[in-house]
């Protein structure tokens, strides 16, 4: 069984987290059955960007990167306190540990900023939120990443980054493909209505 850690900082954007729960869940139920997802929060109770409250299965202090095969990181909004948790020392070390172990790290939108802040994107290709004068892409560049501004999804070795919420399902399917196979991923896509 391949285990995915869905890391949820306070202020995360619900739609960006839900694609991972759905795609990995559909695979467990209707695909090859080889994946499961565990929600891991920075707090025992989290408030999403739009005031949706979530209770994660575990909190970050209760888990180790060794337990998982991949890490998924949604983005969030500054106004909802996302960066306060996404940039915490324990969160950044957790991300570094996944990279040290060569495990897949998949992020959507500004989820890439916590990966950049951890230092593991130094000299590596990546992207993040691409609108609003590309402020967030400039921020990621300042963290040492080689930002590919107009590419919706950027994969550099074990790290997947993307440039806005519209890429969410594609990132989740890319993660599933890396964990299983193209054939299995296409099967799940078809069942979910993404392929005819």
* Backbone structural class: alpha/beta
**Helix percentage range:** 25-40%
Give the strand line-up of the largest sheet.
5-2-1-6-7-11-10
Number of helices: 7
Distance between the termini: 28 Å
Mean pLDDT: 97
Largest sheet: 7 strands, mixed
What is the helix/strand order? Answer: EHEEEEEHHEHEHEEEHH
DSSP strand count? 11
Q: List unreliable stretches of 5+ residues.
A: none
Shape: globular
The fraction of residues assigned to DSSP E strands is 15-25%
Radius of gyration: 15 Å
How would you describe this protein?
The chain is α/β, with parallel strands linked by helices and 196 residues long. The protein has helices at 14-30, 82-86, 89-100, 111-117, 135-142, 168-179, 182-191, and strands spanning 2-8, 35-41, 46-47, 53-54, 58-59, 70-73, 104-107, 125-126, 146-147, 153-156, 159-162. It has a seven-stranded mixed β-sheet, with helices on both faces. Strands 3-4 form a two-stranded antiparallel ribbon. Strands 8-9 form a two-stranded parallel ribbon. α1 packs parallel to α6 (168-179). The chain is globular and about 40 Å long. The two termini are 28 Å apart.
What's the gist of this structure?
With 196 residues, the protein is of the alpha/beta class.
